[in-house]
Amino acid sequence: MPDEVLAPNIELFSRNGFAGPNTTIVRAQYRPRFLRARGEYLPRRFHTWDLPAQVFAEPKALPVTILEGEGIGLELNRRAAAMSFGYVNVWADELHYIVSGRGQLDTEVGTLEVRTGDFVLIPRAVTYRWGEIAEEINEFIVVTTSELRLDPEGAPATFNPDLHLDRPVPHGRPGLPVDDEYEVVVRTGDRFTSYFYDVDPIPCLDVIGAPLVVRFNIENVQGLAVAEGGLAPAQLMSSTSGRDFIFGVGSRHSARPPVHHNADFDEVICYGMGPSPWGSVDTPGTVTWTPKGILHQGPEENVQPGYRAWLLETRSSLTMTPAGRDIAYLMETDRYGVHPAEGQPATAR
To answer: What sections of the protein cross the membrane (predicted)?
Structure first.
């Protein structure tokens, strides 16, 4: 008999995520540990590195969606060489998280040198491309039709924008003529339109005013230490629609999160880096997904020397794409490992 049944188990039922009313339920039994499950509405663990290399083999390959819902998509991208074209999403903001790699991200407002652990927020209608790649780029991208804004809770203790937020460096030069033509791919939802130019349209001479594209690194996001009782993780970003939120959930001094019924939000967590594991998760780029309403606890966060991760909460009801199914495993909702009933990827059954 599991140890959890020997003492009362506390469950938290929440409405509207961390901001709404909460109800505490006390049980003798420990409910997150299920024997098996049948159907589609299941918690999943995605091994993003398992997406086949041939998916990105073409020079003009674009990001691949693994989860999608109303107004939001979660995508993977892999680049080993510079892009020969520009790309602009005119209907959605994009938050790029660099799982691994190092390279040059060139935007129409300047250039950033990015590395593992970087977040880059690119608003809709900003054209960009990957430039020189020093180490293959693997990234996890949140694409949302809601406007994303950086609004760190508890700043500057959790995150200090004055110290750790930067913007692209303007090119300081004009766009030069090209030998043939330069293509810019315009994305509108799941449709694409190409515009062609006789000069490179992306470089700018200077940028004045509020920053458009911003960058910070997950290493500069700090958890809130909590002595007793637990506390919601620190919010980093939110959408103006109130549908999507980003939180830092790296290791912090606090009690283990309670068993949780999140009635209104799907939870997606990306494990960024160690050195410590987070429960059964120890590989950067592991993505966990708990659909709204599914009982879960999740691993202990107070581990040393520590780890870095981040959480997306979305009111959208997410579903897997075919590409997502290829790299998805049934997940147990205690330590977030591959469930014992799952011996093969979800599509293999």
So the answer is: none
